[in-house]
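In the laboratory, one determines a bound structure by crystallizing the protein with its ligand and collecting diffraction data. In a computational setting the workflow is compressed into a single prediction: the sequence and the ligand go in, and a structural description comes out. We illustrate the idea with magnesium ion.
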Amino acid sequence: SKKRDGKNGALLYDPLLQDNTRQRAEIERDIEAGLENDWLDAFFQPIVDLSTGIVKGYEALLRLDHPEKGIMAPAEIIRVAEETGAIIRVGNRMLEKALSNLVQLTNATGNDKTYLAINFSPLQFEQTLPIRFAALTSRHGIAANRIVIEITEATLLHDNPQIRTILDEFARYGCRIALDDFGTGYSSLSYLNSFPVDIVKIDQSFIRSLVADAPDLRHKSRMLVEGITAISHKMECTVVAEGIETEAQRDVLTQFGVDCGQGYFFARPQPVQHLVDLEDIHETARSSVA
Ligand code: C2E
Ligand code: MG
Ligand code: MG
Ligand code: MG
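The predicted complex, in structure-token form:
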């Protein structure tokens, strides 16, 4: 129960606040333990060409495999890491994992055409990032043109000239830039105009409402997705829809000319070893037919 000081009602003790503080401290400890004990990993989620069903690439998504809590999703981990500054070490570790997993998958499948999309926090965008990144990809023997840099408008928000320089440097190496969670921010369209964006990822909230029960919402979100796709194509961007969970959503998006899709309908984010095993199964199936 809350205790207030009699005079001005100021909050002296707020159990909810204390819970949050405790929870945050626990996540901080999980992050440090995760770095220390190598519990961080990059899961891969396939990104599929909607008209052919072919896997064009993967998105690397952070997971923390905690021995007691199991596999922890990234949203809170990233948020806390951004607050404490641990995001730099988490981001660097994630890059290592993502690239070495891509090498493992490439070696297992023999397919060196698929791309890998990696999420970056605004705090990671400092001057030395591109050069460090280039060194890392070349050490792993990965062509820079297989890498997509995923950023949200939070990275572009302040129209900082340094951000532009960093993006241009990535582009010069041959990396592509994806604007993530498109449509949820304040002035998304202007970013297409002023930054070197190659890929637009339509936020999953729009994809969800494509099949909403309310006809009005359904209609409007369809108009929006169709419009965003048309504008993106005019700006020579590839369009990826996030969070596709049903065949109905896939069909509508295909009809609107959306290029690629990602979502549980196709595959969940998973450890790279699962994707390798899956490839082995296909390989066995193919060779037993031959
Ligand atoms: P995001 O970059 O927009 O990633 C897509 C999110 O949608 C992922 O959540 C993915 O698991 C989820 N998703 C994919 N398909 C479906 C679907 O069909 N239905 C639903 N409901 N969800 C789907 P996840 O893995 O929990 O990641 C959440 C967010 O955390 C990411 O959103 C990204 O913003 C951030 N994040 C993840 N990994 C990293 C990282 O390595 N670095 C940074 N800075 N952020 C990361
Ligand atoms: Mg992303
Ligand atoms: Mg997204
Ligand atoms: Mg998101």
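The CA atoms of residues 62 and 274 lie 16 Å apart. Keep in mind that any predicted model is a hypothesis to be tested, not a measurement.
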